[in-house]
Automatic annotation (TrEMBL):
The keyword ATP-binding does not apply. GO terms for molecular function: GTP binding; GTPase activity. This is Ras-domain-containing protein. It comes from the Eukaryota. It comes from Trametes cubensis. Belongs to the small GTPase superfamily. Rab family. PANTHER family: DRAB11-RELATED (PTHR47979). The keyword GTP-binding applies. Keywords: GTP-binding, Lipoprotein, Nucleotide-binding. Signal peptide: none annotated. Residues 194-223 are annotated as: Disordered.
Length: 223
């Protein structure tokens, strides 16, 4: 893959209630770090990351729009859903209301994003309930959403599902990778394509400034 910057660019959105850890998941993905006191997102934030899908020998650039969970920004953030190929629908496993509210975030996504979008339900903050017996003593919150309940709802809605922690990093990259594999599978089956799907772009042999494999012929107006 020498010389190739990316084979696909995919647009992702990250949505869910305020304070469930959306920005923290994105910072973990892009910078491999955890901010204990991040600022709430005012509108949208952006992050991008190259990931490799080894079995396909492909480099994928994820362009991620991290949206505010605060209700007052909802009409602004909805406008960023358009054309997204992937969505991380995030709730906090220690906050049941954030799981219940995921239904209305999903309804919004389905109304405004590509109908073929791949959505992965992410139960964040599992570090807080890694050891339930000592969590009360340590002043930690207890789990309020079981893995089984969330998994069942995800199945009913046709969502992928994973539990993760932006704090420890557990399953964060894996969540994006699972969604990416699912999107690439849709690309191979023709569900998404470069022409019709604004959130999916394939590298082209010329004209867009992308460095290509040395073995590919180069084109140019003056050669
Ligand atoms: N223990 C723990 N805390 C987390 C985790 N992820 C985020 N937090 C904390 O949860 C709080 C909210 O995190 P944010 O990433 O700002 O949440 P958000 O979903 O982006 O919130 P908005 O931008 O307001 O919608 C912060 O105090 C984070 O440090 C996690 O995996 N574990
Ligand atoms: Mg945020």
């Amino acid at each position: 893959m020498a010389g190739v910057q990316w084979h696909y660019v995919l647009k992702f959105i990250i949505t869910g209630d305020a304070a469930v850890g959306k920005s923290s998941l994105l910072v973990r993905l892009t910078d491999q770090r955890f901010l204990a006191n991040p600022d709430p997102t005012l509108g949208v934030e952006f992050g991008s990351k190259l990931i490799t899908i080894p079995e396909e020998n492909k480099i994928v650039k994820l362009q991620c729009w991290d949206t505010a969970g605060t209700e007052s920004f909802r009409s602004i953030t909805r406008s960023y859903y358009r054309g997204a190929a992937g969505c991380l629908l995030v709730y906090d496993v220690t906050n049941r209301q954030s799981f219940l509210n995921a239904r209305s975030w999903l309804a919004d996504v389905r109304e405004h994003a590509d109908p073929h979008l791949t959505c992965i339900l992410v139960g964040n903050k599992i570090d807080l309930c890694s050891d339930e017996s000592s969590s009360a003593a340590a002043g930690k919150r207890k789990r309020e959403v079981s893995t089984e309940e969330a998994e069942l709802w995800a199945q009913e809605e046709g969502l992928l599902f994973v539990e993760a922690s932006a704090k420890s990093g557990e399953n964060v990259e894996a969540a994006f990778e699972r969604a990416t594999r699912n999107i690439l599978d849709k690309v191979h089956r023709g569900v998404f394509d470069d022409e019709r799907s604004p959130g999916v772009k394939l590298s082209k042999p010329s004209g867009n400034g992308i460095a290509l494999d040395e073995s590919q012929p180069r084109s140019g107006c003056c050669s």
